Amino acid sequence: MAIKSRFLISTTLILLLTCFFSWLSMRVLAEDIIGSWVERYAEKQVRYDKVRTLLPLIQEVNLSKEFANLNALTLWAKNPHDDNLKAQALQETEKFRPRFSDGSYFIALKGNDRYYYSDGEKPINSDYYRYTLDASKNSDAWFYGIMEKNLDLHLNVNPDVELGVVKLWSDVLIREGDEVLGVVGTGLDLSTFLNQMVEKQDIYSAILFTSPEGSIQLYQNEALISFSSLTNESNNQKCIFKLLDDEASHALLKSTYALAKESPNHVETAVVKKDGVRQLASVIYIPEIDWFQVNFIDINNFLPFTEFSGLLIVFAISLVFALLIVYLLLAVIVTKPIAELESSIRALGENQYKAPKLSRFAGPEIKRLVAHYRNISKTLLSYQQELEEKVATRTAELSRLSKRDPLTELYNRRGFEMHMADYMQKWESARTPFGLINVDVDRFKSINDQYGHGAGDLVLQRIADYLIEIVGENGEVSRWGGDEFLILVKQADVASLALISKQLLGKSNPLIVDIKSQNVTIQFSVGSALVQEEDTLADILHRADKAMYAVKFAGRD
């Protein structure tokens, strides 16, 4: 064979190998770049899913904890056979009930093994007793298990056979010191909650929530949820690890769980085999509810490797004609665009968009890749900005709602306490005197009984307007609870408190509300207190409350 032929053959082989390795390097680089982007996308997605899916649940958990700390409820739980304490406790819990999103709650007392449940359908004078718990019944094992394991908070999906409902329950212990007195909580309707998850599901990911042991607590496929996970045997539970294809994926996900628990609210990732494909599992531990959130993302949806197959042919044909030209063009066609793309991805990691600059000599495959990247990165940044705006708006709205009474738009108890905490600090530094006026509506229950709760709500709104009109710019009015209002009078003295109290108690300008074409005169019992040295908010409230009850018990025409 002639030297020319041998040279051409050798050169062709070398060029073919060069083409192959160039194409392979390109593919590896692209996989690393897109894989890095997928991890960033997964981390942002899992945090977004946590906020939008668990925010209602975390709110219910916080309400359940506040509910368990009601003083009247604790007193009754210590003496479950005292009817007076029971009546007082149920009166307080019924006032609290509308704050739960489901409008229901349960109380299970250790002292008498009784289970009470209220969803607003029974009359107000009922004691809401439903059934007696039995330690020998498997359906009641949750109650004794929570107390035995001393779980301050327990979340589980459980069907209540006696009530005929399936809910996502948040269970909280009633305590006095170290003594456990019972369990209280509320529930979210499971079907409604799962439907909301599915409606908000991202098209590229599948979300589920598990216990630390891996039993599935929430998933869009209700058949895979592990009911009553506290009392079920672990080998009978429906477990996330059983969704994986092999033992290696199982072990890797378990180790990812351990890493996530060591760094709560930090996202850990692992590539596992599920449903026959590679999937990126993003895991985050949520300490507020002792659950793990897992998002599975099919990596293949983000790695269009088929677009790279033509690149090998382009390189092979080009390099056959001239090795020197290939070496010169390689930097222009491949290396520089990749560097631009990598630089742009680094900027994207810092939430900035830097457009890759491509020369006209860049290969078409690179241009298509960069075009895809441009579209994806712009979409991601837009999606992130929209998410941040939604989260900020929702957070601000939730903050406002948590401080305001929805009926009267006045400060609620929590909002007024926060406002008073700030005001007390100003008092301690500036010593500007102020006072509190406790206003209780006389015979408000008779209005509800005679005209209905809708009329009662109207009266409360008119009372709020009336009190604001009397106080004006000199104070702040709050709805302390039920038919009880508190007024902060700024820069007050004994005379100014007496003047406002006289207006509220006098008959010169009474509040008259038109209810169903009848003029109803609203009367109040009023007590006031002026701030004194070394006072706390509780001290002032106590004196105002005591003064109000002195007026109420004295009787009025």
Output the structural class.
alpha+beta
The CATH topology of the largest domain comes to Beta-Lactamase
Mean pLDDT across the residues is 78
Q: In DSSP terms, counting alpha (H) and pi (I) runs of 4 or more, how many helices?
A: 14
CATH class term of the largest domain: Alpha Beta
The CA-CA distance between the termini, in Å, is 127 Å
- Tell me the CATH superfamily of the largest domain: PAS domain
Rounded radius of gyration (Å): 33 Å
Low-confidence stretches: none
Name the strands of the widest sheet in spatial order. Answer: 3-2-1-6-5-4
- Roughly what fraction of the amino acids lie in strands? 15-25%
Largest sheet: 6 strands, antiparallel
**Residue share in helix:** 40-55%
The CATH architecture of the largest domain comes to 2-Layer Sandwich
Quick overview of this protein structure:
By secondary structure, the protein is of the alpha+beta class. The protein has helices spanning 3-68, 71-78, 83-96, 141-148, 190-199, 247-262, 309-321, 323-349, 364-403, 413-430, 444-451, 453-471, 494-505, 537-554; strands at 105-109, 114-118, 129-132, 153-160, 165-176, 179-189, 205-210, 216-219, 268-274, 277-286, 291-298, 434-441, 475-481, 484-490, 511-515, 518-522, 524-530. The protein folds into four domains: 10-62 and 201-303, PAS domain (Beta-Lactamase, 2-Layer Sandwich); 69-192, 2-Layer Sandwich (Beta-Lactamase); 329-395; 413-555, Alpha-Beta Plaits (2-Layer Sandwich).
